[in-house]
Each structure stands twice: as C-alpha cells, then as structure tokens.
Amino acid sequence: MVxxxxxxxxxxxxxxxxxxxxxxxxxxxKAALRAWFLERSFVEVDTxxxxxxxxxxxxxxxxRTDLVxxxxxSRPLYLNTSPEFACKKxxxxxxxxxxxxxxxxxxxxxxxxxxxxFTMLEWYRANEPYDVLMEDCAALLTVAxxxxxxxxxxxxxxxxxPFIPPERLTVADAFTRHAGINVxxxxxxxxPDRNALARAAGQAGIRTANDDTWAxxxxxxxxxxxxxxxxxxxxTLLTEYPAHLAALARAKPGNPHVAERFE
Length: 263
Description:
- With 263 residues, the protein is of the alpha+beta class.
- Helix content is 32%, strand content 21%.
- α1 packs antiparallel against α3 and α4 packs across α6.
- The mean pLDDT is 91.
C-alpha cells in the first residue's frame, strides 16, 4: 500500500501551488453568487462579528471574549455563530432583500464536515413564502457548480447532480421511511415526549443515554438513519422541522407541530 505524501504547509511559498486552485475556485464561486443576488435586487450587508448574545441554539457553542472599556471595566461578548440576529435587525429596520458572506465561529466543532471558523452565506427575503427560499437553494447550487466548473458534487462515496431539481422530503416522512419512527407522534402533548422517542430510537437500533433530551435523541436518529441515505444522486431539501426545533422559524399554518424550516 502506497500512502499519499502529506500536503505542504500552506504558508510555504514554494508549495502553495497544490492549494491555489481551491482559492481561485472559491473566488469564482463567490463572484457568481454575488452577481446572482445583485441581479435580483438584493443588498449586500456586512454584519458585526461581536455579539451581546450568541443565540440560544441548544447545540451551538460560541467563543467568548471580553470587551474592556476606557474605564477598565469589562463585559462579555461573543463571536457570532451566524449572522442571523444582525440580519433580522436589518429586516426589522425595513430591508427586504439582503445577503452576506459572514465569517462565523462555532466552538466545540472540529471534524471532516465542521470547522470552528468558516464563511456562511446567508440571505433573506421579506414578505415571501419560504418555498421561494428552497428554489433559491436549488438555483444557488447550480450557480456555484457552474462557477466551479463541475457537473457533479461529491463527498466520500456519494455524489449528486447539482442541475437536477432537489428532492423535497419532510422530516416526518424521512423518519418514517428511513428509521421507521413516527416522530410527530412524540410531539402531540404539551411537551415533547422524550421517553417515547427514546423507545422508538432503541427499536431502530440507536443507543441513547439517560440524560439525552428529546432534541439529543432526534439528532442521533437524524445523523444515524437519515443523513447517510439522503442527498444521493440529487440534493435533498429536508423540510417541515418539528416546531420544537423551529429556532426563529414560524409554525406552519394549519399544523402547529411543524415549522417552516428546512435544511
């Protein structure tokens, strides 16, 4: 077995060539995405990175720092985990179409698919149905792929054709189809039924811990049973998240158990 030689440190001037292609492709992709938004009358914004509150997402952990004033007094601030709060303040102020390429930071994240520092593309449309945002996602996937000069997007053993319209699959249907679990049945009471979801997870072969919350178990099922089997051949839009996990999304009209949230 012949192993690949280790890649050179990026700061080595003589060895930068093995990475420069990614840098150039990133520039092409950002330019194409920016042009797409500007053609549709979006306004580009730059949001602040330091926030008074990092947000209340259960599974997101912010980097904390201290702001020291001229008087020597200090108060905590946090690097933003996303530009969401700042963007929504602009929407409240009257902006209707905005986008940003925001440096974002998330602590306790490191792996093949996660990095503590990354750039997030975030955009908003006021007074439009969230289905339009799903159409945006499909269009942006195509725009980015064209800019990168590729007809397929691959990761590991999976690949997708970015030019095929994405599959739309509700969370409830995904859990039923791929895990054999009726996740909405655990949400019919005043509070999520953690024990019912834990039993269903066990029957599906997923181990849970005694201190796992309903949201923890939901995430375990999603990672183990759903994510590995979607996004094959074409992209998947996972829609109608449980309202318990809605974050700042609104409940879907006519169904209080799910929210207008998709990923």
